[in-house]
UniProtKB/TrEMBL annotation:
Gene Ontology molecular function: any one: nucleic acid binding
EC number(s) per entry: 3.1.11.6
Keyword field contains Ribonucleoprotein: no
Coiled coil regions in record: none
Family stated for the protein in its record: Belongs to the XseA family.
EC class (word): hydrolase
Membrane-spanning ranges: none
Subunit structure: Heterooligomer composed of large and small subunits.
Protein name in UniProt: Exodeoxyribonuclease 7 large subunit
NCBIfam families linked to this entry: xseA (TIGR00237)
Subcellular location(s) per record: Cytoplasm
Superkingdom field: Bacteria
Length: 494
């Protein structure tokens, strides 16, 4: 029994570790064994913290690997992880001892295969289409002849040379070139900034505002053109206030910017052809329209001249038009002297008839008639109605005066009664009624004394009774002139 107790406990010689030691050893083992690795899988849950760090999962059909991209590494990602996207991530495996977890710090994300890229493109396309960015009604018409054209492309490629050459052949215009990377990680942010930058130009500034923007790039694989499939580029093109032509890739290549732009050109050269008309064709068309206008004006004048000549032949001659009026004038001129003589004779006869009727007796009769009418009118003009009206108004005024006097007397009597009642109430509430019951008011030098200590400080006191006042203390001293009647709520009552 004692031998068994002396035997050491199994495992007692195993070294002990702290939790931090174990966590540190695991971290060193993971980072030393794996180093920088590439992992392929499907993106699961994606979460972007307020700090800017990006947390997401990479999974297959059985396991999940937690991944982290720090805030300073997010801007360097060529593809931002989206849920459901198959990607290949590159980074360093590390452990987080505070939670006994390990994760992959990712600094590079690539889409795993063209099929995944097409799936991502289709997803973004459906999202933008649901927001109405592909709608035809929001697309702006292109200016017929822009003064300034802004081109967003690489300054060193063949695209810009083709565009400039085509513009020079068709209709030379001023061109502003905004150099950008047309593939790679910097493509999307630089193209977005270029479109937004052109829209921020002001008319009349140091750099004039373009009337039209062309975003151009040559052909390439879907990976090469992927920068123009980024959501930031599509939204910048959709938000452009300046009409925009997209000319990315060849005719068979299609990117998101083609759907949101105001016009899509199959090639950069075709974009230049859409931007401006052919100058020579425009001049020829202008000359043709000018010739047509001249011919139309000449034909119109000729037709109107012929019509005027036709109407002139249908009109009678001036001599024919004046024959009848001249004949009537001659006839009237011949009858006019006789008509004047007969008119004067007729009026002389009427005047003699009227003068024969104007006799003195007739005038006297007319005067008498008028005088009788004036007498009748004057007899009806009398002062009696006016005097009666004045008497009536005077009586009404006297009645109103009497009523006013009675009302004033009644009101004064009522006010006197109210004053007497108030005075009786004042006498009832006065302190003198209390003096009649045997109380007194004590004063010293005109001030009311209410305590013994106040009274001991004075040599002369004045005591008010119901029937008068009495001065005590100094002999022969009259009451002070400052003495005043105390209000009903003051005084010392004994």
């Amino acid at each position: 029994m004692s031998d068994l107790l002396d035997d050491p406990i199994p495992g007692q010689n195993t070294p002990e570790y702290t939790v931090s030691d174990i966590s540190g050893e695991v971290k060193r083992t993971l980072e030393g064994s794996f180093g920088r690795i590439r992992v392929r899988g499907e993106v699961g849950r994606v979460f972007k913290a307020r700090s800017g760090h990006l947390y997401y999962d990479i999974k297959d059909d059985r396991n999940v690997l937690a991944c982290t991209t720090w805030k300073g590494q997010v801007s360097g990602l060529s593809v931002v992880p989206e849920e459901g996207l198959e990607v290949v991530v590159t980074g360093r495996l590390t452990a987080f001892g505070a939670q006994s977890k390990y994760n992959l710090n990712v600094d590079e994300v690539a889409v795993a295969g063209q099929g995944a890229l097409m799936a991502l493109l289709e997803k973004r396309k459906k999202q933008l289409e649901s927001e109405g960015l592909f709608a035809q009604e929001r697309k702006k018409p292109l200016p017929y002849l822009p003064q300034i054209i802004g081109v967003v492309t690489s300054p060193s490629g063949a695209v810009i040379r083709d565009i400039l050459h085509r513009l020079r052949d068709r209709f030379p215009r001023k061109v502003l070139i905004w150099p950008v990377a047309v593939q790679g990680a910097n493509c999307a942010p630089e193209v977005s900034r270029a479109i937004e930058g052109f829209n921020q130009f002001t008319s009349g500034g140091a750099l004039p505002r373009p009337d039209l923007i062309i975003v151009a790039r040559g052909g390439g694989s879907i990976e090469d053109l992927w920068g123009f499939n980024e959501e930031s580029v599509a939204r910048a093109a959709a938000g452009s206030q300046i009409p925009l032509i997209s000319a990315v890739g060849h005719e068979t290549d299609t990117t998101l910017i083609d759907y949101v732009s105001d016009r899509r050109a199959p090639t950069p050269t075709a974009a230049a052809e859409l931007a401006v008309p052919v100058r020579m064709e425009l001049l020829a068309w202008t000359a043709e329209q000018g010739a047509r206008l001249s011919r139309a004006a000449t034909d119109a004048v000729e037709r109107r001249s012929q019509r005027l000549r036709d109407l002139t032949r249908a009109l009678p001659r001036p001599d024919t038009l004046l024959e009848n009026p001249r004949q009537r004038l001659d006839q009237i001129s011949e009858r006019l002297p006789n008509a004047l003589i007969r008119g004067v004779q007729n009026r002389r006869v009427k005047l003699l008839d009227s003068a024969a009727r104007l006799r003195p007796s007739t005038l006297r009769s007319l005067v008498e008639t008028r005088r009788d009418r004036w007498r009748n009118l004057s007899s009806r003009l009398s002062l009696r109605p006016i005097q009666r009206e004045l008497e009536t108004r005077r009586e009404s005024l006297n009645r109103l005066t009497e009523r006013l006097n009675v009302a004033q007397t009644t009101r004064l009597d009522r006010l006197h009664q109210q004053i007497e009642a108030t005075d009786r109430l004042r006498e009832t509430l006065s302190y003198k009624a209390t003096l009649g019951r045997g109380y007194t008011v004590v004063r010293a030098e005109g001030e009311v004394i209410t305590t013994k200590s106040q009274a001991s400080g004075h040599t002369a006191l004045e005591i008010e009774f119901a029937d008068g006042r009495l001065l005590t203390g100094a002999q022969g001293k009259a009451p002070s002139k400052k003495t005043k009647q105390a209000p009903p709520d003051q005084g010392s009552l004994f």
